[in-house]
Amino acid sequence: MNQETTTPVPSSQMSFLVKRNISLLAIAQAITGSNQALIAAVGGLAGASLAPTPALATVPITAQILGLALTTIPATYAIHHLGRRNGFILGAGLAIFGGLAASYALVIGSFVLFCAALVLVGASAAFGQQYRFAAADSVPEMFKARAISFVLLGGILAGFLGPRLSFVAKDWVRGVEFSGSFLVISVLGCIAIAVLWFTRLAPVANTGNLTNSGRTLRQLLRSPEIFVPVAAGMATYALMTFAMVAAPLAMVLVCGHSVETATTAIQWHVVAMFAPSFITGHIINKIGAHLTAGLGLFLILLSAVTALNGVTEWHFYAGLVLLGVGWNFGFIGSTTLLTSAYGEAEAARAQGLNEQLVFGTMAVASIGSGVLLQLIGWQAVNILVIPVATATIALLAWGDHRTRLLREAGVG
């Protein structure tokens, strides 16, 4: 039963509830982001200790992303059926079981179980990805970008917390490196449930309308207002994942940097992913979502160029920070474009479609990253980023030009 629709909220309390809910969602985002940052920092290194061949070291990270991608549509409809709070709590519960299973898999040395456990953690993240939509749907149109940005600010804490906890806890289980790191995921899942319990989120659209009205999936994808932000989101997340997943492996196994250096680099990368959220909403309101997303892709391109100029720890730090900031502008920009492109009855369909395509592409980028790192090296991995980023910038420029022409013609 969706308890969120049972009691009307007096208008005098609305502003307070919106601020409280967005703040709680930001905390929950910090927890979900910490899980993902932890896996980004040590998932590949833990996978390398279990994998039958080094080329498969990133398969556990890919398993987590596959869990996210395959659960996006079920998670969207579960949230619309159960209500946002109950759906989010269900997602946090999955992280508890996933963390325990991953830790145990490292104890017994099971690569298959480790991958399966990270599928559960990925499924949990699929619910967490809906936090930004919950925030956007609770505020007027002009405040959507700021609401999304504020929720994603929780990622700043995630950037410090996830990688640092992964390093601090890696030897908690004697003789089994990184097993303790994954126990942290279960602890964070328990905290997330406690935080989410106190939210009172905006009601979702009536589930009966979700399948009987609005545009079909094919019609949505044929709309430039939908496919441009979806394509931009796909490129932004895939390119970020492609470089980020390979970076710790390249640092430790290829370039000889320490595990602590690698986790620190990922820490600052994740901080850079979310710290710009202080200003991203204002930037979008100033220059527009198309240009903001395009700026994000340009920074990702600069990240690749930086990585091509050297392999010192400072080249990795600078490249990963640029990659993080680029992701922030690209992801928030494309999400803002998307949330303005569908009606209430199409929300679950459009959001589920976006998440499925974005994180499906992200999964391909993840496994391709590890394989290509082994086959062609770190430099070549970064070369591949350049044409994709450039093409996506061109698509966003076309979308922006089309939107301006329609606005001048008085359409939309």
Give the key terms.
412 residues; mainly alpha; Growth Hormone, Chain: A; globular
Protein topology:
Elements: H1 11-50, H2 59-82, H3 84-108, H4 111-128, H5 131-136, H6 144-152, H7 154-168, H8 179-196, H9 207-210, H10 217-222, H11 224-254, H12 259-274, H13 277-287, H14 289-307, H15 313-339, H16 347-376, H17 378-408
Helix pairs in contact: 1-4, 1-6, 1-7, 1-8, 1-11, 1-12, 2-3, 2-4, 2-16, 3-4, 3-8, 6-13, 6-15, 7-8, 7-12, 11-12, 11-14, 11-15, 11-16, 11-17, 12-15, 13-14, 13-15, 14-15, 14-17, 16-17
The mean pLDDT is 86
Strand content: under 5%
User: What is the C-alpha radius of gyration, as a whole number of Å?
Assistant: 20 Å
Low-pLDDT parts are 5-13
- Secondary-structure-based class equals mainly alpha
Give the name of the CATH superfamily: MFS general substrate transporter like domains
The major pleated sheet works out as: none
Q: Count structural domains.
A: 1
What is the helical fraction, as a range of percent? over 70%
Give helix and strand order, one letter per element, not per position. Answer: HHHHHHHHHHHHHHHHH
State the end-to-end CA separation.
Answer: 36 Å
